[in-house]
Amino acid sequence: MKVLHLFIADKFTKPLIPFLNSNFGIEDHLFLGVLDNQNQKDFDHPNVRFLASPLRKHFFKNLFLFYTYCKSADKIVLHGSVFNHFFLLFPFFLKKAYWIIMGSELYTIPNNSGWNIWMRKFVLSRVSYHVTHIEGDSALANQLLHSDAKLIYSPLYLSNTVNTNDFKAIQLNQEKTLHILVGNSLSSNNNHFQIFDWLKQLKDENIKIYVPLSYGSDLVYRDKVIAKGREMFQDQFAPITEFMDPESYREFLKTMDIAIFNHSRQEALGVTLTLMSLGKLVYVNPNTTSYQSLIKKGLKVFDNRLILDSGLRTNRDVDSNKMMLEKYYSTASLLNSYQLIYNN
User: Fold this and answer.
1) Is the peptide bond before 286 cis (omega within 30 degrees of 0)?
2) Number of helices followed by number of strands (H, E) in the chain
3) What is the largest CA-CA distance in the chain?
């Protein structure tokens, strides 16, 4: 076995497995996973195995599986951190480990302590490679963990690849009503209220504000966002509280003109890439690693402070985004990145 993938069965890994199976020999890689509210039938592939559940009850059986597969693998790809406690017992396996950096896990490390944080630091500081499409996340990880892992560029998952067939740049000054997407979830990290204050100052604009609030668990915050939005914008405000499947959500995003994200850290990159692939203008917090990485690649996203400086109807040139997205976020780019891992 060349490559062992340690994974959590979720919406990201579900399509990745058949993608890799169709492009590499099944005998070359194996997936050892943990179910996460997913139907095991959705992961019915000949090279997928799952730890026995409940995990603690079958600890020694699971430990044996982990050791056996790790020992026989040339490389180990970490999707998530559910196997960290096993690596405490066999840290030498981390020399051949490739860490898929999602981004959010980095922000649990600073100013936190306790057993789980210590274990995460112990494990992640010993991997040999970082796999990410946000170069700043790799640099931040090395800084926080005092490590020197090497970087392999990758879109990571199919959810970060884009289809540019529907790319169409719009002329904002020709639109009667501007349809504006604010945030991507009901997390307070969206900083909705600050965006509302910005939009309120542009009171002469004819706008409709759409706020996705179906993803996440902080229902108290969701209700505050809805109440504030209705108070400030009345019928111009449209909260979205029903979950949409990916195709329906893409069709909805086609109807938007502008997206404003004000996350204080790397987040909402999947929806950002989808919006860009449709030719939309995306404003984001310039202090995030994702903004810096996209700009470095030549992609056109915009500092959200420009909204107040020049209004919402300023046309901005995003034509080059189509070509750059195809270069960095195509399925070909994703496949190439896994070829680098498999052949490295």
Assistant:
1) no
2) 13, 13
3) 66
Quick one: which H or E segment has residue 201?
A: helix 192-201
- Cβ contact 76:6 at 8 Å: yes
- Cα–Cα distance list, 77 to 31, 82, 269, 272 (Å): 9, 13, 22, 26
Q: Rounded CA gap, 321 and 257, in Å?
A: 15
Nearest to 162 by CA among 288, 258, 299: 299
pLDDT at 203 over 80: no
- Strands across the sheet with 237-240, in order? 237-240, 207-212, 178-182, 258-260, 281-284, 302-303
Rounded Cα–Cα distance for residues 282 and 257 (Å): 9
Tens of pLDDT, residue by residue over 2-40, are 999 999 998 899 999 999 999 998 999 999 999 866 778
DSSP 272-303: HHHHHHTT-EEEE-TTSHHHHHHHHTT---EE
Amino acid (1-letter code) at residue 200: K
d(CA 191, CA 213): 13
- In single-letter form, the type of residue at position 110 comes to P
| Residues 6 and 79: beta-carbon distance below 8 Å | yes
CA 101 to each of CA 53, 119, 121, 136: distance values in angstroms, whole numbers, following the listed order: 26, 16, 14, 11
| 207-211, 227-231, 263-267, 314-318: the lowest-pLDDT one | 263-267
| Neighbour count for residue 262 (Cβ, 10 Å) | 19
Cα separation, 43 vs 15, in Å, equals: 9
Q: Report the 10 Å Cβ neighbour count for 232.
A: 15
Find residue 259's DSSP bridge partners: 181, 282
Model pLDDT, residue 37? 67
DSSP for residue 103 = S
